[in-house]
Amino acid sequence: MIIGIPKEIKTLENRVSMTPGAVGSLIRQGNEVLVESGAGLGSGLTDEEYQAAGAKMVSAAEAWGAEMVIKVKEPLPSEFQYLRKDLILFTYLHLAAAEDLTNALLESGTIGIAYETVESPDRTLPLLTPMSEVAGRMATQVGAHYLEKTQGGRGILLGGVPGVSPAEVLVLGGGVVGTNAARIAMGMGARVTILDLSHGRLQYLDDVFNGRITTMMSTEANIREMVQRADLVIGGVLLPGAKAPKLITRDMLGIMKEGSVIVDVAVDQGGCVETIKPTTHDNPTYIVDGVVHYGVANMPGAVPRTSTFALVNQTTPYAMRLAAKGVAALKDDPGLALGLNTYKGKLTCPAVGEAFGIDS
Ligand code: NAD
Q1: So what's the pLDDT on residue 11?
Q2: Best of 12, 205, 238 to mutate for ligand 1, by most ligand atoms within 8 A of CB?
Q3: What local confidence, expressed as pLDDT, does residue 163 receive?
Q4: Which end of the chain is more exposed for a tag (fewer CB within 10 A), N or C?
Q5: Whether residue 276 has its Cβ less than 6 Å from ligand 1
C-alpha cells in the first residue's frame, strides 16, 4: 500500500503521525511511505532520518495522494480539498464536536477511521490512552501555572508550604486523564478529589491511591459542593464518541472562587464546562466570571517529542494491519472496526450521528 504522512498544520501542532522507526516497519512490510518534507521537525525528527528508514520525502499534496493517510489531528478546512472517495484516513477525528468536518468526510466519501473510538477487547481506548496520559499529567502542570497571580489566577501554590494549606484540586472523571492529573496533583502536594459515575472506577482509584485522595460519586449536588471549594478544576469526563456532558453550568461559576482555574481537557469532545470553548497554545486562556478557563484541544502538542513517540507506540500495530489488508482489517478486529466513523458517504459511528441528529 502507498501510505502518506502529511505535516500537521494545526496552530503550534508539532507532533507527527509516524516516527522513522515506524516508517521502517511499514516499509519492511512491503509498503511505500511518502512523508511530507519537514513533517517530523517539530518532534526533532529530520528528513534524513526518514530517508534513512526508506521513506520518500514529498509535498503535502503528494502525501495526501496516498491510498492511506495517517495523521495526528483532524483535517482542517484547508485540507478538505484532499479528501476523496476510497481514501483511508487514520487519525484523531473527534467528529461529535465538528459538524463541518463530518460533512466534508461524508460528501467526499472518505473512509474515516478515528483513533479515539478504536477499542481494545477490554473496552479501553488504546489510541486515546497515550495522549490522555500526556494531557492528564500536563493539566495539573498547566493549572498550577495559571493559578499564579500574573497569569490571572488566585496567586496560590498548589502544594502550599508548611503552615499554609495546599490547593484543592477537583478532577471530574476518573479515567486516564483524571487518574494522571490526580497523580501529579497529589505529587505536588495538593488535596485531590475525583468524581466519577462508575462505582468500580472509584473503588479502583481509592485502591491505587491508597486512600490519599477523596473519591465521590458524580452527582449534581456533589459537583456543586466541590466546585465552591476548588482552586483548580480539571475536566476529564468522556462518553466515547459523544459530546461531553456539561457538568459545570454557567451559574456554578458564580459560586466558584475568584481566580480559580478550570482546565477542561474534555474540550475536544465539546467540554464538560458550559462556558468552555476551544483555545490554542498561543492564546490558551480566557476569563469568565473571574474564573480562568483553559481549553486547548491539542494539549499534547506542547510536548511533541514525548507525545509523538507515545502515540506511535500504540498506532503502529493498527497501521500495519490496515496497510496489509486495507478496510478488510476491520473485519478481523471488532475493536478496530469501532474506529470506523465514516464510510463512503455514510456515518458509521452512532454517537456522532446522535450529536447531529443524523441516522448512522
Ligand atoms: P476515559 O474513558 O479514560 O475516562 C473518562 C471517565 O469519565 C470515565 O471514568 C467515565 O466513567 C467518566 N465519566 C463519564 N461521565 C461522567 C460524569 N457525568 N461524571 C463524572 N465522570 C464521568 O477517557 P480519557 O482518556 O480520560 O479522556 C477524557 C477526555 O479527555 C476525552 O474527551 C478525551 O478526548 C480528552 N482528551 C483531550 C486532550 C486535549 O488535548 N485536550 C488530550 C487527550 C484526551
Answers
A1: 79
A2: 238
A3: 98
A4: C
A5: no
Residues 286 and 317 in one domain: no
For the CA of 178, the nearest atom of ligand 1: 26
Q: Find the radius of gyration of the CA atoms of the chain.
A: 21
Average pLDDT, consecutive stretches of 10 residues, N- to C-terminus, the chain (360 residues): 97 92 98 98 98 98 98 97 97 92 97 96 92 97 98 97 98 98 98 98 96 97 98 94 92 98 95 96 96 95 95 98 97 96 93 73
Asked if the structure places residue 154 within a domain, the reply is yes
292 & 308 share domain: no
pLDDT of the residue at 175: 96
Active-site option among 196, 231, 264, 268 = 268
Name the closest-CA residue to atom 7, ligand 1: 237
Q: Is the CB of 111 within 6 Å of ligand 1?
A: no
- Ligand 1 in reach of 174 Cβ (< 6 A): yes
Type of residue numbered 102: T
Question: pLDDT value at position 141?
Answer: 98
Going by the DSSP 8-state scheme, the letter that residue 174 receives in this structure is: -
- Domain residues for the domain of 258 are 129-301
Tell me what pLDDT residue 96 has.
87
Structural domain includes residue 123: no
User: For residue 88, what pLDDT is reported?
Assistant: 98
78-87: long-range contacts (C-beta < 8 A, 24 or more apart)?
78/9, 79/6, 79/9, 80/104, 80/108, 83/108, 83/110, 84/108, 84/109, 84/110, 85/109, 85/110, 85/344, 86/111, 86/344, 87/111
Does 84 share its domain with 202?
no
Q: Same structural domain for residues 182 and 55?
A: no
What is the 25 CA–ligand 1 centroid distance (Å)?
32
Query: Is 97 within a domain?
Result: yes
